[in-house]
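Review form for a predicted model. The reviewer records the input and the model, then writes brief findings.
Reviewer: anonymous (R2)
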Amino acid sequence: MLIKKLGKIEKYETYIDTAFSRGTKQVEDKRVEVKGKDRIIKSKSLELERVRIVKKTLINSLNKIFEAFPSFDELHPFYLEIISIYYDIGKLRKSLAGIQWVRRKIEKLEDEYSKQIKHAKYVKDINPIRNAFFARVDSVMKQIRGDLSLLEEFRRFDKWLPSVKTSSFSVCISGFPNVGKSTLLSKISSAKPEIDSYAFTTRRLNLGYIKRDIGEIQLIDTPGTLARFNKMNDIEKLAYIAMKNLANCIVYVYDKMEEYPWKEQKKLAEQLEKFKVPILFYLSKTDLLSREQIEEVKREVDVIVDCEELVAKMGEVKDKY
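Model under review:
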């Protein structure tokens, strides 16, 4: 996830109601302090406090939102490309800029109306000034109602994003759907991915880690990829983006038992060469194959059939990286 700890981003009316309620409560608490003072002094003191609390409450809420979001200019290309599938990053930037604009506007309004309250000559003039401040603040907050909605939508989406370590040595596990990629991940790491018997079980990136003397290897189980890179769906794009931006090595999983023709599996393996990283080939479900079938595959492809050997090979690639 990219967004720091942040609760639900509410509708603008909720922030307004909360701020006004806190302002009223603070004024009630302050009445004891100003008891016995001149009426106009008391009225000014109470309404200045109300205006101050409304401003402070709204700005604190807006700051929490703005500060929790990442800087899109500094995001790793992996995240930028994934987000771009679903969102217009330009609009997200504009929404965050809108939050900042409203924050500055509320500060100016508080300063402007506080001065008016301080300079008021009659008690009857003070409440109308306060009400005018409330109306202006409400109007300004209303202007970002769409921005708040978009940012809340993105906050929920952010929970779905994988928390990859973009600086780690990464191995992407690739192959057709249901060939055993998630099973392999669970065998060679402590990861517990969702595994089932139907295609496209992996609908996001499953992560696992291998600890070695020379450092950590990050394993990324990518959604099943079909051999049609120019017509990818969103699930397949996740795999492509991960391999393009994160892979230091690719483990391609062959499956002699699965429905996908051997010719198509080889074709996809050849397409992975475009990523220009080392590729290791692994043959899954060997417990269901005869020795003759395994040897037949080995004559055609330099496949690895043992998990320990595969991990050792990944370590060798990392040593050279």
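Findings: Residues 169-320 form a domain with the Rossmann fold fold (CATH 3.40.50.300).
Further findings: The two ends are 27 Å apart (CA to CA).
Recommendation: see findings above.
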